[in-house]
Design goal:
Blueprint (H helix, E strand, L loop, with lengths): L12 E3 L8 E7 L3 H9 L7 E7 L3 E6 L2 E6 H4 L2 E5 L6
Antiparallel strand pairs: 1-6, 2-3, 2-6, 3-4, 4-5
Length: 90
Amino acid sequence: MHNTPQPVSSSPLIPLSLVACGQWVWVRDVTADAKSSHRLHDLGIVRGARLRMVQDDGRLILVAVGDTRVGLARGLAQRVRVQLEEESAA
């Protein structure tokens, strides 16, 4: 995984579980227990990571982490606080 510059955004932090499909976000905080935090870390969902919401079926959330798709239970996704990526003006 490579580091990319993280733009400063004025949007508030929200749980990953509330992100709309297709939206890009930056992970800003993970408030899970040690075991869950370790699992998220292994999946690449760490502070500073850029994710894209792929699908939300009400129970399972599918996000893109780089070129990989990762499924998360809704409860775990609620523990990941993200900031919406602001679209650059054209």
